[in-house]
Specification:
- With 752 residues, the chain is an alpha/beta fold.
- It has four domains: 181 residues, no CATH class; 233 residues, no CATH class; 136 residues, no CATH class; 136 residues, no CATH class.
- It contains eleven helices and 38 strands.
- The chain has a 22-stranded mixed β-sheet that branches. Strands 1, 2, 3, 4, 5 and 38 form a six-stranded antiparallel β-sheet that branches.
- The longest helix has 75 residues.
- It is globular and about 110 Å long.
Amino acid sequence: MELGKRQSLSESSGVALILVVIASFAILTAAALIVTRLHEVKRSSDSAMHRAIADEALKAGIDVAISRVWHRFRVSTQPDEDGLVIRLANVESYRKFLDDEIVRNGETRAMLTDGQSIDLAAGGVAVTALSVSRNDDTTGTVLTLNATARSVDGDIDSAVQTVRVGGEPFTGLDFALMSNRSTCVFCHADVLPVEMLDKGLTPIDLVRRVRVASLEDFFVDLDGEFAANSTIAGTLYTRGNIRNPGGSAISADQLAGSTLGAYKLREGTDKLEFDVNGDLIEVSFTETDVNEEGALSRFGNLYVDYPVDEADMADGQVPTAFPPAFPDPDGDRLVSDDEYANIAANVNGRVTGGIALGVANGTTYAGGDLPIVPDANTMVGLNDGEHSGNLFLVGTQSNPIEFSRADSSTPDEDGKAGTVAIDGDLVIKGTVKGKGQLYVRGNVYIVGDLTYADEPGKFGEANDGTENGLAITPGGNILIGDFLTRRGKNDDGAFGAFTALEVDYRLADKELSTTDGSQRVDVGYFADNVVDPGLPSMLAPTDPDFDLLHDEDITSFATSEMMLFNQDEFIETEANPDYVPRYYQMRPGAPVWAFDPLPSNAQQYTIRYNDPLARQLDGNHLDKTNAVVMSLTPKNGWVTEDQLRRFWFMDEQYRPDLGRPFTIDAFLYTNNAIIGIMHSKSRHNSNTYGRLVLRGAMIARDLGVLAPGDDQYLPRKGMSLYRDPRISDFVRIENTEKVVFERRVFRKTAAG
């Protein structure tokens, strides 16, 4: 018994000992695991800290590079203690700074010499290499900054940062319609968001307002046949007064309940309000009040005398000027060879479809109508994004003018339009597919409908998913439709009235009797004396024979508008002797006309050359001011006036008798003039019925577009402008007289 008891105790002690050993081993193992884990955590923590230090070192290196390529330039544009400035802060001076001190276009330069490093506070951490690569684009410079850094543990890491220094983005892209001075645009016009084409809107839909601006006076007729009958689905800004055709100021109270109206905004927002049926709610324009702090309130529908100081622009930026699409560093208001070459060298788009035909400078187009077969050589050049000389572009449903981006497009530019450069004038019409921005050195002539190849029921999207968008941004003017033909013939001679026999736009010949019945007058489209000659009859109104020839006194709509634009330029030269004016004329050799209305004059424009308030600007003034004079007609007659009129006449023949508006899908921009007129059915037999539908935007320093509509279409609406909200996403226009810095992509590129 005793032995058994002792044996049992011994066995129990052995088991206990084994358990103790096992427990001890477990504890030691756990302790070892804990220690190992602690070492791993420390290593991980140290590694994370080293990576963080390395990343900060790379960022510090990039900051050093930015300091050299940007902050050093900025310092040089600030006045020193003596008030001296080394450089102007614009794109041209920035590029010169890079040329002289940093790196030239297309090159890469080291910013640290061999063996040189930038030691940082943490031990062993240093920036061991910095380099910069430069590539200029049309309005700025993209710099690629590369930095290499050594971490605490000796590892080598690298990173790249791209930055762009370019012109100040043009805030006018946010507008549906903008010009220096509005005269006749608001004669039966609606300005709406393009979303209003969707008939299925509901009260909960969020649709942003449109914005319209006149940087000087805004002229509008509130009474009579040419009363506004217009609405703006958003906000109107002016920097002058709102005036009637007689030049008298119109108060906001007078606008209330007038034929110029607005649509309601959701309170405190820039969104439109809809009624229960999804329709816009008409309201009157109300001048925006100032708040308790004396600042303008936001989201009003009318701002008169809107501030020019950005800090005071409470309701968003409204530009003070129209930067040229082609940067103009020499300030001569013309597109020089170098300025065109800068654009052409940086195009990133191509034209791969449509009917394209080039006409070399110094030659004349031989066709009687628009080309119907593409020219292979012209298409080859456009496939590279550039055409030397004048150009026809015509698109059809089966063969649209097709734009695309070059394969070398960078991620930074995703979604932007492919840019194409044309070293001459452009005549364009037809169907467009893809996204393109056309830089045209000369004038652009839109000779018929210009529409997107959209899937039915959609806007800006083809049936294969391609996004459609077009921007036309010339160095010259944009002419929409027939700008050459006079308003009529056989005027009764009264300076304030217009009782001429209107030209028929669909009949080649058409005879009508004069008012007094004394003679028959041919008012057909191809009759004698229907083309505006740019000057009056050689006979004075008092000449006995003048009654037979006085129809030559009547102007075209384009001349009436040019007179107003030229007068504004003349006034600027009187106020600023250093100002270089830009005047317009009908064709080379034609006089430069101006019209100076009296404050009490019933009309702020004229339709007659012999109006006492119309005058020619003399050559001495043009020479003394170094004036630039731009012609509306094609350069060197590469396409003749007779051919242009033939294009317009044939376009009228293709329009159905029930009518089809002149339709344009595009963003139209120039710092010169956009001039266009749609003729009515009742006066001129035009099957446009005096209507223009534009889906995009229309922005020009000088804007003269008249779409009066026709009483045969009621309510009488002439122009329907639907703003495309995508414009600021795919178009680039910058003011290169100012310069801004933009950081883009930062990424790690290697780890050793």
